[in-house]
Please model this.
Amino acid sequence: MLKVSSYPHISSETTTRKIMFIVIAALMPAFFGSIFFFGIRALIITLISIVSSFACEALCQAIRKKPITINDGSAILTGLLLAFNLPSCVPYWVPVVGAFFAIAVAKQVFGGLGYNIFNPALAGRAFLMASWPSIMTGKWVVPRLGTMSGIIYSLPVEMTSNATPLTALKDYSSVLGLPELLNAKSTIYSLFLGMRGGCLGETSCLLLLIGGIILISFRIIDFRIPLSYFLAVFSLTGILWLLGVTPVTPLFHILSGGLFLGAFFMATDYVTSPMTRKGRWIFGIGCGIITVLIRLWGGYPEGVSYSILLMNATTPLIDKFTRSRIFGY
Amino acid sequence: MKRYTFPGGIHPKENKSITEDKKITAIQPPDEIIVPLSQHTGSPSKPIVEKGSKVHIGTKIGEITGFISANIHSPVSGEVKKIDTHPHPSGGEILSVFITNDGKDEWENVSDRDIESISGGDIIEIVKEAGIVGLGGAAFPTHVKMSPPKGKQYDTLILNGSECEPYLTCDYRLMVERPEDILLGGRLIARTIGVKRCIIAIEENKPEAIRKMEKIVGRYDFEIITLITKYPEGAEKQLIWAITEEEVPTGGLPVDVGVCVQNVGTALAVYEAVKYNKPLIERAVTVTGAVKRPSNFKVRIGTPFKELIEKAGGYLGIPYKLISGGPMMGISQYTDDVPVVKGTTGILVFKEETNSLVRTACIKCGRCINVCPMNLMPTKILAYIESGDFSNAKELGVLDCMECGSCEYICPARRPIVHNIKLAKLRLRK
Ligand code: SF4
Ligand code: SF4
Model:
């Protein structure tokens, strides 16, 4: 019996599953980094988050009487990214609740893989932030080899004990000499390497950069989103720094908070970001502008996740308005 | 040297090395030949022989019936056994003339014309009489293409030697083995359509053909253009854009931008028809994939596929898929009884599945959009088709899709895009 099917009869080797696992692999440097900086608890939180996402996806699909597609890797990836957006010291039920919201509410309610509007991991984090703000931002862990704020000189106790670089900037920038300390070369180094407080997977710019380069060189993500995101944050904070609106350099803004994680791994999520090349520039620039607005004038010290969520909502519109002219018209 | 190409497209594995060094060898026609009466774009030909009619090679057996149609000739000498329906490689069962081959290979009438003195008008008549159609696969009647509609004019001729389909090498072999005759045919077409600029365009993955052509193009007043290897470089609109940066308007024809594209094999057929009065009764076919001796053959039209596969040493293992044409746009067959027709560029056998079959939901990766040479949004078109919204699919340009399959090839979710677009086109044209 000869098999009859529509052409094309060959396909590229890149499949959905392969893409998911390459992204997971690209997150491994930062994952091992998180265990190094924050200890075994980072590992436990991550595993709980992954297992909960995985189980939740299977459960939802069983309830919806849909084919179980957990081996496509997307739930594992969501679990991993959710954990990366949590402080390592949260109670063990937090990743469970977050994964439930991410998978069941943000993804499956919308129809499952491909149909969700918001990045599931970020939606999960936003839900946790809104429901348990003190758990999510009240307490951080000092990283191995570093300090909470990334500043390696001694500081008044109340500052070093519980201020990440961005909370230090937000809450204490009027303290004499602090901006200078934040801009110091040594601080910039510790920000780049990851020796500062923060969510467990977001701190090491270096390790996230390695992952980002892997994704771009394997053509998994489009460089346009991270590039335009970084450029927008850099140029906007650069102007504001020159104008004296923000006391820290654009370099500090780029390296602090969750920008590297957001720009390489969250804003580039296929499903929730534009499909057109032009649209991707717009998306990245939008994320950058909103991030800076939240950081400098919003109620939160960090704006990366909210900026991406907001831009997610505009994605269908961006796709619509950046449609190319059809050949021959 | 400038490298020409078009925006979008894909780079599938070429797999041409399997047969690219295999000389085109003529194979003996079998005892019975099956010649379908529809082998071209347009209306089928009308049979003008009946059971028992004696035929020679080149005896006309099917006559042109409309403006877009083509004559059909007997590829062997012998006797008409019957006229009946038979499976056709493009699908369906088609009225075909079954001819018993007497093995004598007697020709109807041959000549040796002085091609320098023949006028353009006569050339069109000869081409029309000889039943020549585009040999790159689309099989559009060549005499129609050579007669531009009133008020329109050609200024450029492009001989298409890009052969961008993976696996196929028959055009390449023709360019290597018979470069002069191809360009002579090109000159005849150029004389007919009255153009100054004549180009032969070849993809970079055929350096031997480029070298051969480079040596002689000057003699025949042709220029050679090398194209970046990419699929679908040989698609008419993309080829024209790559070379002239002109867009054939939607719903329009290449003549709207003054360009006439002819496949290199077609040019050769034109030469042979004008010079020797030889109708289109044979063509070059690549037989490749899971066969014991992949080859390039010169084959009489109407030879069943299984005959060619036998000549290629037989199947290698159990055949899984039998494709008429290349892997991107070829048509899978349910039987190897189908005959070679004028548009058969190759026979490709796969012994196992070559597609990843793990289908997921569309993950909105945008790959299909970035590779679509027509600048469409295949994922959105598919979503509309799947929800039955054909008018919105039309709005997004589904009718401009040329079914090249680039989008589906690249799709990590393996969405069935081409199949659905074909369905939508049928619905919309009704
Ligand atoms: S939409 Fe049509 S023209 Fe575009 S890549 Fe797909 S098959 Fe080719
Ligand atoms: S390539 Fe496939 S998965 Fe990607 S956007 Fe197009 S249809 Fe969706």
Summary: Chain B is about 25% helix and 20% strand.
